[in-house]
Specification:
The chain has four helices and 37 strands. The chain has 395 residues and is mostly beta strands. The strands form eight sheets. The protein has a 16-stranded parallel beta sheet that branches. The protein starts with 7 loop residues before the first helix and ends in a 12-residue tail after the last helix. 41% of the residues are buried. The structure holds 2-acetamido-2-deoxy-beta-D-glucopyranose (9 copies). Residues 360-376 have a biased composition (Low complexity). Its main location: secreted. Residues 36-130 form the Receptor L-domain domain.
């Protein structure tokens, strides 16, 4: 296909061309935007319109600033994007470009809303130093590394399903006003939030080999860890967990929350295969859970040395060395305990015969409540919402 390179940049800069929203329809519209040092408006480049659909390379290496949104989406033939001088934009959304493999935005420093989502062949995403960002999302790409990230106060951070990505260094981040959701990246991913103290929304980490949240002291919404492979983790500074704490399907054998005294809603500890003992160091100071406590897995021992209040139900299930009788004793200090217990004793020291030692001391509230473990969810589709029309340059 042969594209006509228009001389739009030279002729189309009628007064005002850099000051209004543009839905790009052709290469010459791209040139028009690129001829502006500062473009004041939104730039939408969407391949759903025939014409632009054939675009293979998007080069806008002169424009330095876009005050509105820059949206690059649904361009299925697009292979490379180069925004060589762009240093600032209200948003940069690169969505659903199935074949793009290289995106260069080397100067981008300030971007309120940064979304790189569903570009499954994207291998090279080069930005050198993001210093100001409110919403930061990289989801479903093939990138193996992130650029420097030096923003200390952020809105949301979401990095999901980048299967080649192993080093997630967010050590510059001190607090977020929104959520952090990181999961399903490279197999041995190391996640570092070593300076993070406060999170205004949910915190969810999944599939990590190492995790550093050693200064995290306050979480305003749900806190969850799931399918992580680290063996032992201390969350030494966390004092305030305003909603639930969920630990599900992790491989740790020990974890500790030394400062947590109160959980805002419920505590779920579910199917952590190697986690046999909730010991006196796991939740040493936890006194009160206004919601439920749900524990399932192969537990040998449960100890909550300070727990005196559970307003919801305590639900125990699984199989291990722990019997329901012993488990009830573990919660003996809890006022008006409401416990539903379904623990099968599969092995006891020096006693391989027992099956009867499992007892149901259910509180009469009927059948099992099935798992309530809540993993984090992100609707990529929800992000890929609005669509505009587009282009025709290559005729
Ligand atoms: C970013 O672009 C703006 C608009 O052209 C310019 O004034 C500013 O100097 C640039 N900043 C940097 C750090 O390059
Ligand atoms: C990124 O930019 C910030 C602010 O300009 C600067 O302090 C920091 O050293 C830079 N980091 C890197 C890795 O370039
Ligand atoms: C992850 O951390 C482990 C242990 O600190 C280290 O051996 C490994 O090289 C790190 N991997 C990456 C990709 O940084
Ligand atoms: C886990 O690590 C802590 C220190 O971070 C240590 O005190 C504790 O003994 C470890 N637990 C296990 C079971 O290895
Ligand atoms: C936990 O394990 C039980 C029994 O294997 C299973 O029925 C349940 O779906 C699991 N729940 C989670 C959240 O993994
Ligand atoms: C559980 O652990 C506590 C404290 O570590 C210990 O005192 C208790 O005997 C253990 N219970 C069982 C049934 O092993
Ligand atoms: C213990 O029980 C298991 C399963 O019932 C059985 O396979 C095993 O041989 C028993 N071991 C002993 C020492 O009785
Ligand atoms: C996270 O936050 C949102 C909005 O506050 C909420 O709807 C959701 O249930 C929370 N929890 C999890 C585990 O995603
Ligand atoms: C994303 O691209 C696929 C084709 O690869 C297309 O079918 C789908 O409609 C696009 N999604 C959105 C939200 O535009």
């Amino acid at each position: 296909m042969k594209c006509v390179i228009a001389f739009a940049a030279l002729v189309a800069i009628a007064a005002g061309a850099c000051n209004k929203d543009i839905t790009v329809k052709s290469q010459s519209d791209i040139n028009t935007v690129n001829a502006c040092t500062k473009f004041q408006g939104d730039v939408t480049i969407d391949g759903h319109q025939e014409g632009l659909a054939g675009l293979g390379a998007l080069n806008m290496d002169s424009v330095q600033q876009i005050t509105g949104d820059l949206i690059i989406q649904n361009l299925y033939n697009l292979q490379t994007v180069s925004l060589g001088q762009l240093n600032s934009t209200a948003s940069l959304k690169i969505l659903n470009n199935t074949n793009v493999y290289k995106v260069a935005i080397p100067k981008l420093a300030n971007v309120a809303d940064f979304q790189v989502i569903t570009n499954p062949n994207l291998k090279e995403l080069t930005y050198s130093n993001i210093t100001t960002v409110s919403n930061f999302q990289i989801i479903d790409t093939y990138i193996a590394s992130l650029g420097a990230f030096s923003a200390s106060s952020v809105g949301n951070i979401e990095v999901l399903s980048n299967t080649q990505l192993t080093a997630l260094d967010f050590s510059a981040v001190k607090k977020t006003s929104g959520y952090i959701n990181i999961a399903n990246n490279g197999r041995a991913s190391n996640i570092t939030f070593s300076q993070l103290t406060q999170v205004g929304g949910n915190v969810s980490f999944g599939n990590a080999a190492t995790l550093d949240i050693s200064k995290l002291s306050s979480v305003s919404d749900d806190f969850s860890l799931y399918q992580n492979s680290f063996k032992n983790l201390s969350i030494p500074a966390l004092a305030t967990a305003k909603k639930s704490i969920t630990l599900s399907q992790n491989l740790f054998s020990a974890i500790s929350f030394p400062l947590v005294t109160e959980i805002g809603s419920s505590l779920d500890i579910i199917n952590n295969t190697n986690f046999k003992s909730i010991s006196s160091t796991t939740f040493p100071k936890l006194t009160s859970v206004p919601g439920s406590v749900v524990i399932s897995g192969s537990l040998d021992n449960i100890t909550f040395p300070s727990l005196t209040t559970v307003d919801g139900q305590v639900q125990l299930s699984g199989s291990g060395k722990l019997s329901c009788d012993s488990a009830e004793k573990s919660f003996a200090r809890v006022d008006s305990l409401n416990i539903e217990c379904d623990l099968k004793v599969t092995s006891k020291d020096n006693d391989n015969s027992s099956d009867d030692s499992s007892k149901d001391s259910g509180s009469g509230s009927g059948s099992d409540d099935s798992s309530k473990s809540s993993a984090s969810r992100t609707s990529v589709a929800a992000v890929l919402g609005g669509v505009v029309a587009i282009v025709a340059a290559c005729l």
